[in-house]
Structure formats: structure tokens, C-alpha cells
Specification:
Length: 243
């Protein structure tokens, strides 16, 4: 039996507490306000982003998620939309931080990551790669973390699949040269995060902002709040003085 060496964390609703509906409303409000002056009708822009997101979720690995998104988006808005990519980037760089007010914050997120780092555990951020890196890095900072806290973090520029596709997790394993048995996946979404168990990973369901669309019986998974997670991790990775 292989020893667990690596913890994969989801971000939204896990390390970064949030109500997804409130976050999405704030996000769309902000990006529509930024792009309306250059001719984007807010309702059509929201429809275009949702369509592009669906294209990424359906991505079969034939291209990066970034290409899947923009291919779909330009079907709605024409190739000229590609000239506006810098405007989207400017939104994330300059205005996206305002969306942080729609999210929560818990110091337990960084404390948990720091605990694992202090015990030599490898850490990756397995957040659904439907955002560009700049937006993912911003959300890390909202959670009190930074890109240097993670050996790998998934974005639409470096990923070819999305959750709950098992190939998404297999890609991470391949990049980090790991077997599933060496990993623990921590997330808040029963459908998208706990599915990693199918590959042979251990899982922990963080319940503070839990998403359970199919009303699955969660008693089958180790689960609880950050205190329960810390207790679980300390059993899994005891300090040298405790061994």
C-alpha cells in the first residue's frame, strides 16, 4: 500500500468559503459593467460566458480549456472577440478583486496548508479550470494563500478537462508523477470532488459550503469542518514527535 504524499485542494467553497450563487452574481455584474462600454450586451455576454464554460466542461482533451472557451465564445460574437481578450484580462487584473466581498474568509485555510507544508506534504490546487490563471491567483489571495503555496494549480490555460471528468484528475497525477493511492482530495462538492475516490484517491468532504446536488449520503466519506479536517490530517500525517 502506497503512502499518501500529496493533498489536492479544491478552491471555491473549500479553501475560499463562498455561496456559489452569490459569487456568480457578483462576478457577472462586474464583468458586464466592465465590458458594456465596448459593446457587449450584458445578457448576451452572460450567455456567452455560460456557453463557453459548458464547452470547457465538455472538453474531451482535444485542446486546452482556453481554446475550447474562446472557440465557443467567438461562435456567438465573431472572431473580433479575440481582440477583446486584453479587456477581459484587464477586468480580472483591475476589477475582479471587488468580487471578493461576495466570498467569505477563514484563517483555517492557510493554517491547514501551512500545517501540511511543515510536514513535507506535497500540495496542489485542484480547482475546476474554467478561469484564467490571473483569476485563479486572485481567488487564492482572497483565501490568504498565494501561487507559491502550491506545486501545481489548474487553470484554463494548462488543463484539457474539467471536473467531474476523471481525466481531469488523471492529468494532475500524470503531471505530478503520482499514483491515485498517493493522494488525498479535499473538496466541498460531492459530485465534482468526491469522484476522485473512483480512481483510488482518499477523499475528505469539507461541509461548510457543501454542494450536494444529487443528495448523496455523505456518511460514506470522511467529512466535517476545518477542525475535523485538521484532526483527520494530523492522523494521516503525524508530526515526527508523534510517531
Amino acid at each position: 500500500m502506497k503512502k499518501i504524499t500529496t493533498v489536492l485542494f479544491d478552491l471555491d467553497g473549500t479553501l475560499l468559503p463562498m455561496d456559489q450563487d452569490i459569487f456568480i452574481k457578483a462576478y457577472f455584474g462586474g464583468i458586464c459593467k466592465r465590458l458594456a462600454p465596448i459593446g457587449y450586451d450584458p445578457q448576451r455576454l452572460v450567455e456567452g460566458i455560460w456557453a463557453g464554460t459548458a464547452a470547457m466542461v465538455k472538453n474531451d482533451g482535444g485542446c486546452l480549456n482556453e481554446a475550447a472557451f474562446w472557440s465557443c465564445f467567438t461562435e456567438m460574437f465573431g472572431k473580433k472577440a479575440l481582440d477583446d481578450i486584453p479587456m477581459f484580462d484587464d477586468y480580472y487584473r483591475e476589477d475582479f478583486d471587488k468580487v471578493s466581498a461576495s466570498c467569505g474568509y477563514t484563517p483555517a485555510a492557510k493554517e491547514t496548508v501551512d500545517l501540511l507544508k511543515s510536514r513535507g506534504i506535497r500540495i496542489a490546487l485542484a480547482t475546476n479550470p474554467i478561469f484564467p490563471a490571473i483569476a485563479t491567483e486572485k481567488r487564492m489571495h482572497w483565501a490568504g494563500l498565494s501561487p507559491t503555496d502550491f506545486e501545481l494549480y489548474t487553470t484554463y490555460e494548462n488543463s484539457r478537462y474539467c471536473k467531474p471528468n476523471l481525466h481531469y484528475y488523471e492529468d494532475i497525477l500524470q503531471q505530478m508523477k503520482l499514483s491515485p493511492e498517493q493522494c488525498l482530495m479535499v473538496g466541498n462538492d460531492v459530485g465534482e470532488d468526491m469522484i476522485a475516490e473512483v480512481l483510488g484517491m482518499k477523499v475528505f468532504l469539507l461541509t461548510g459550503c457543501m454542494i450536494n446536488k444529487q443528495n448523496v449520503d455523505i456518511s460514506r466519506y470522511p467529512h466535517g469542518d476545518f477542525a475535523a479536517l485538521k484532526s483527520y490530517l494530523c492522523q494521516l500525517f503525524p508530526a515526527e514527535s508523534e510517531v
